[in-house]
Amino acid sequence: MEKLLKNLKNSGVLNSNKVYDAMKQVDRGDFTPYNAYDDSPQSISFNATISAPHMHCHALQYLEPYLTQGAHVLDVGSGSGYLTVALSKMINDSGIIVGIEHIKELYEFGKKNISKNHKNLLDSKKIILVNEDGRKGFKTYAPYKVIHVGAAADEVPKELIEQLDRNGRMFIPVGSYDQWIKVIDKDSNGKISEKKIMGVRYVPLTSKEKQLKGY
Ligand code: SAH
Of 43, 60, 106, 181, which is best to mutate to test ligand 1, by the most ligand atoms within 8 angstroms of its C-beta? Predict the structure, then answer.
């Protein structure tokens, strides 16, 4: 893991010590059996992937200023569970990270992976995994200071905008063939502003049925 992070540093992607420390505490080998220390996405079955480490790194760096002590965080499409744990490490396990995954088997996979070395976070409910449609968000712990979406939406779901806290930030891939990361901020008056950050390739944020059919 350390070598992977050093490479991300040398290539100029990783430039935050806090993100370095958070990712170092989460061994990617617990979350994928394949080429865990390569900087590439890997299949986790069910037409889903664990994102490449450089994408996890970009996400954490864009979200870092908003990841404050005690924050409520929503991770939509939590999949392998890697980023869900890394988000918790960014706030020294001081808040609540809700991971939503709609495929039952992937929800179980994420839970199993997290349990290997971070079971305490599940037991203490600092990480809460739910097996539901993430496009609707998760009201119980809303509003969220940070919302990370790990799959590409055609349009930003309005429930997610509603559940974003004031002075909060969402990181979300948007689009179908031509995809972009959008960073969406809600200011102290509830006003929304957004920026297109970079072109990307994510699996779609869709229904269970479409995903299992191969889209
Ligand atoms: N952050 C995860 C990304 C996994 S890929 C990781 O790095 O491991 C995207 C995930 O989003 C998949 O697990 C997929 O099953 C899930 N997904 C897609 N549409 C969804 C929806 N509507 N609700 C919840 N999860 C969804």
Answer: 106
Instruction: Express each pLDDT in 96-119 by its tens digit.
Output: 999 999 999 999 999 999 999 999
The residue nearest atom 18 of ligand 1, judged by CA position, is 205
Answer yes or no: pTM beyond 0.85: yes
The CA distance from 148 to 77, in Å, is 9
List pLDDT tens digits, range 166-192: 999 999 999 998 999 999 999 999 999
The residues, any chain, with a CB within 8 Å of residue 171's CB and separated by 6 or more, are 59, 62, 63, 146, 147, 148, 149, 181, 182, 183
3-state SS class at 210? helix
- For residue 127, the surrounding DSSP H or E stretch is strand 127-130
Residue linked to tokens 């079971």: 119
106-117 as b/e: b if 16+ CB within 10 A = bbebbbebbeee
26 lines ligand 1 (CB under 6 A): no
